[in-house]
Amino acid sequence: MFKLRDRETAEKILEKISGTDIHLTLMHVCGTHQDTLVRFGLQKRLEEANVDIRQGPGCPVCVTIPQEIDEIMALARAGKIITAFGDALKVPGTQGSLFSAKSEGADVRIVYGIDDAVGIARKEKDREVVFFAIGFETTAPTTAAALISEPPDNFRVLSTHRIMPPALRAIAEMGEIKLDGLIQPGHVSTIIGTRPYTFLSRDFGIPQVVAGFEPLDLLMAVFMIARQVKSGKAEVQNEYSRVVREEGNPKALAVLDRAFERADVAWRGFPVIPGSRLDLRSEFDKWDARKTYSDIIAEVDYSADVEEKGCICGRLLRGLGAPEDCPLFGRKCTPDKPVGPCMVSREGSCNISFKYGKLKNL
């Protein structure tokens, strides 16, 4: 809940935003930002101030494509121990989900990090253990660090790690939505810094602000973008300067560079985005599930189109619409029985809208 002082400050910032007398369409790419916007009622208040904020591809579970789920499903059904974050279990592939594989008898275990998965491999020495690595630049360094530390020979990683700047370029180049500004993610930016975003302002004229996660952080980010638009500027500003530095975290970036190389891959709702996935470098081949189990994974059909009829998750990840626009939202698709990953993940826009009572508008 807002403290009284924070509430008064919020009202002042909202008044200043309204005072700019401009209409803004913004995008953020962070599930935590979406949670803050909806939970504290900021989305509605900002709409009243002529600011429309869309959530883009800021949910790593949501942007994972069905074929990547099929890869880990194939390994689960081949008898490997699969370790994954809880959010990943219900994400649908073309042949079901890890949750359904577990109900069929596959050994699928929820972990809270890669160290838990490595620990299982050390304990289960006679079994092969695969860690399903999902996440952006925030979680990828932990995967890299585990690989560099030489995990057990019976341990493997199936990497679906994505990096954010190429997806933002894709959004700008696709031109489906005219953006007046971008609110950049705080967590990712603690790793990569602010420099990787500069091309968006330079090449596409998009004002940007890196923001923290408190309500006042987001309101200030909107106000800072509004000031840029009003003055005709387009640059990267850092509202989250108490944590984020221009150069990011050099040690984490060095670890990422040592363990991973960039690969071209599609994102859910997007075509192939060049250089947007982190695949293991060749020196880590013995821990790379795609190479070690290439015969099993080769059975995955990458040409399949399995999006559920009516589900608009792919459109939501491109900032086109709101969860309530989906005909399945709250009816056929709920957190207990999700149809698309935007309802599965706690960082997904549909899950967040459902959780905070948007159903009253149906």
Model description:
There is one protein chain. With 362 residues, the protein is an alpha/beta fold. It has a domain at 4-58 and 175-238: 3-Layer(aba) Sandwich (Rossmann fold), CATH 3.40.50.11750. Helices cover 41% and strands 15% of the residues. The chain is built from 18 helices and 11 strands. The chain has helices at residues 4-19, 31-39, 42-48, 60-63, 66-77, 98-103, 114-123, 140-148, 164-174, 186-192, 198-204, 215-231, 250-259, 289-292, 294-297, 313-316, 341-344, 349-355; strands spanning 24-28, 51-55, 81-84, 108-110, 129-133, 155-159, 181-184, 208-210, 236-238, 260-266, 272-280. The strands form 3 sheets. The protein has a 5-stranded parallel β-sheet with strand order 2-1-7-8-9. Helix 6 links the parallel strand 3 and strand 4 (108-110). The two termini are 26 Å apart. Mean pLDDT is 94; it is low at 358-362.
**Could you name the ranges where pLDDT drops below 50 across 5 or more consecutive residues?**
358-362
Query: From N to C, what is the helix and strand string?
Result: HEHHEHHEHEHEHEHEHHEHEHEEHHHHH
- Largest sheet, strands/sense/barrel: 5 strands, parallel
What's the CATH C level of the domain at 4-58 and 175-238? Alpha Beta
**CATH architecture title of the domain at 4-58 and 175-238:** 3-Layer(aba) Sandwich
Q: Determine the number of helices (DSSP H or I, runs of at least 4 residues).
A: 18
CATH topology of the domain at 4-58 and 175-238: Rossmann fold
Biggest sheet: strands side by side, in what order? 2-1-7-8-9
* Strand content bin: 5-15%
Radius of gyration: 21 Å
User: Could you tell me the number of beta strands?
Assistant: 11
Average per-residue pLDDT, rounded, comes to 94
Going by helix content, strand content and strand pairing, the class is alpha/beta
CATH superfamily of the domain at 4-58 and 175-238: HypD, alpha/beta domain 1
What's the N-to-C terminus distance? 26 Å
- The helicity comes to 40-55%
The coarse silhouette is globular
